[in-house]
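During the reporting period the student researcher (J.K.) took over the structure-prediction task from the postdoctoral fellow and processed the backlog of single-chain submissions. One of the processed entries is reproduced below for the supervisory committee.
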Amino acid sequence: MGLFGLFTREKKESLDKGLEKTKQGLFQRLGRILTAKHKVDDSVLDELEEILITSDVGVDTTLKIIERIQERVKRDAYGTTDELDTILREEIAKLLSENNKTDVDDWELPKSEDPYVIMVVGVNGVGKTTTIGKLAYQFKKAGKRVVLGAADTFRAAAIEQLTVWADSVGVSIVKQQMGSDPASVAFDTLSSAKAQGADVVIIDTAGRLHNKINLMNELTKIKNVMQKVVPSAPHEILLVLDGSTGQNAFEQARQFTKATQVTALAITKLDGTAKGGVVIGVSDQFSIPVKYIGIGEGIEDLQLFSKEEFVDSLFKH
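J.K. obtained the following structure tokens:
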């Protein structure tokens, strides 16, 4: 069984509910095509292309999906629109599988004497601190000892918000005054975590994109300082994106992947938007696995991403 438990019926119901707006936006329109047309021709594919792009799958990923569908229709002699739903489902599942290799029910912390270090990046307002709090809750629920590091010292509110989460979840937090050196906070956090025998460290970082060079230098400095305490840190660099921002999420991913080596994505606020196609597009365009999705405001509403369950919920009629 994986670290966050099996994908239960309750989790599946939460996922179905969280993706309802995206599913309605995508498949109500797709349904109109399937009802109006009987043959998969250029006009059907043109309409499908428009639907995917406006669902924020992204232009490049949409063109890739359309091209694959065209090849299958030609190769396998698919001709009716009745089969289009199945083909689309299978091709989206394949795309997600190419970048999401890990089975959600199998993911475990690697065995190590050192804590597993997650450095969390993302602009302000995307749900970064909330994601950290919910992650801390999930790890603690799984029996892990967690330490948070408040290395977003640019905003006093960020430190305060993370402290509220630490107190609420019941985990340790290491913090300094606003304006302190973020790398110093990260160093102290890892030192404290090692002394406590912690299993997981989650480091919050400042979400400023106005100067990519400063952002890159800051994140690099944090990584270098952490490696003085735990040589293999960070084990994961998690970029948090707000799914409701659609194409803006693509731009944020572009900027942060230039600034640092992002290894995993958390896409939040999917319950409040019809733009859930961003999960497919961002994962495909940046070749980065989606690890977590936020599908509600509750503390349990951050889920490990299951590509199979995601596609199943998206295409459930």
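The committee noted the following: The chain has a mean pLDDT of 88.
J.K. will present the remaining backlog at the next meeting.
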